[in-house]
Design a protein that fits this description.
- The protein has 3 domains: about 30 residues, no CATH class; about 45 residues; about 40 residues, no CATH class.
- By secondary structure, the chain is α+β, with helices and mostly antiparallel strands.
- Strand 1 and strand 2 form a beta hairpin.
- It has 3 helices and 5 strands.
């Protein structure tokens, strides 16, 4: 393959110098990041791209850590509710406790001792 063919493959104005070397076209880029100078040349652009990729990787790592921690805490809290089946609700458990409890009845102004068997006693 000739150097001219290689320069055409690169495209975007690449050419061949008098001594047979590939000459890359001048590159213009926008600011890589706020407060940083624009990179010059392909190596500068690759360096800027690498820094941007590392920054993105760091942010993704932080997001993963937060998600993992939240999942772990949710799993711990779910374990604290052990005893509840998939179809059970906390409110159902509260109703069950009320069926075997000493409760204040504001309308009667008495305590009612209710048992699951249906028998009621008033105090």
């Amino acid at each position: 393959m000739s150097m001219d063919s290689f320069a055409r493959i690169i495209g975007n104005g690449a050419g061949v110098s008098q001594d047979g070397r590939i000459v890359m076209p001048a590159q213009t880029t926008s600011e890589a990041a706020p407060g940083q100078a624009s990179p010059s040349g392909i190596l500068g652009e690759l360096g800027a791209l690498d820094r941007a990729a590392l920054a993105s990787d760091k942010k993704l790592g932080e997001a993963f850590d937060l998600t993992f921690d939240a999942h772990q805490k949710a799993s711990e809290n779910a374990a604290k509710l052990e005893g509840l089946g998939a179809d059970e609700k906390v409110v159902d458990r509260i109703d069950e406790v009320k069926r075997n409890a000493l409760m204040w009845d504001p309308s009667q102004k008495t305590y009612s001792a209710t048992h699951a068997d249906g028998a009621q006693n008033r105090i």
